[in-house]
Amino acid sequence: MQAIEILERLVGFPSVVGTPNGEIVAWIRHYLQSHGAVVTELPGPEGDRSNLFATIGPKETPGYILSGHMDVVPAAESGWTSDPFRLRAETDRLYGRGATDMKGFLAAVLAAVPALAAMPLRQSIHLAFSYDEEAGCRGVPHMIARLPELCAAPLGAIIGEPSGMQAIRAHKGKAAARLTVRGRSGHSSRPDQGLNAIHAITDVLVCARAEAERLTSGPFEPVFEPPYSSLQVGTLKGGQAVNIIPDSCEAEFEARAISGVEPVTLLAPLRVAAEALSQFGFQVEWRELSAYPALSLAADAPLATLLGELTGIEPLAAVSYGTEAGLFQRAGIDAIICGPGDIGRAHKPDEFILTGELLACQAMVEALGRRCA
What is the CATH number of domain 1-168+293-370? Predict the structure, then answer.
């Protein structure tokens, strides 16, 4: 099958983050097995979605991982000019949810599988397809934990997030959390009889603003924009009416960390401020939503050199968005980002990828195979 045909199949599976993914997993598994790949389905603890790991070549020799996620963000936003889960071609543009982020990469890799299977590979090539990346990289840690039993220690992992086929060596880490504060409702004329959850949560909001300002003073990592870690309040919900004491309030916080900084530690002062509210009679719930570490690959790392040679483009030092790459690096596997498409088209109506981008990615994967043969 050609890359466009495969992309059409993949876009047709509405594998929205947080939902069952059995259909897309089954199709990819069958396709890979039909070309002789050794495929392992790895169910997650949720019970209704799985990671997929496949090997082409000798399992016992170190090789390279091609990693991508099968899930996509929802397509409920207005502005789509066609069915987001049906690939639409116009000139060299291929429209559909996930076309760029990141089923285009999966399609290009799968299109290269017949060529890889025909090569006398001395080093293995592994495909690591994950679930729920869009919810904060929730699926891939379960797969990474199983790698020692699935393959020899990999030489590196290529994470195919959209990068215009320019390899990227670094990104920030991220942590997100949701705080829910519950008080006691009542009529606004008797504030002495209630517990105002919105008033209470402002202590945490003030803390968040102070921490965000403090982070601008460093430490710094010049490759990033901005060159320091950051923190923000992303959402705030509470109250029913102006004359009712609000009995609950919810806020979501996000931190982005430069390399060397654990993202969850940036949110720790907020959690301390939140838990202090319990002494005033409030019920406090702090829930971590997601967390993944930063990626930082040295410019002279063999994997960076390899990707520069395969793509013909000098690797980029860093980007602002995050990926699963930091999790591979934390597990001791060198990782780098390189994939087709443009991140600026992701998560938007009429998301698209160019035909030429698909073919360039397929060519890169086949070139990697020749290096391993």
Answer: 3.40.630.10
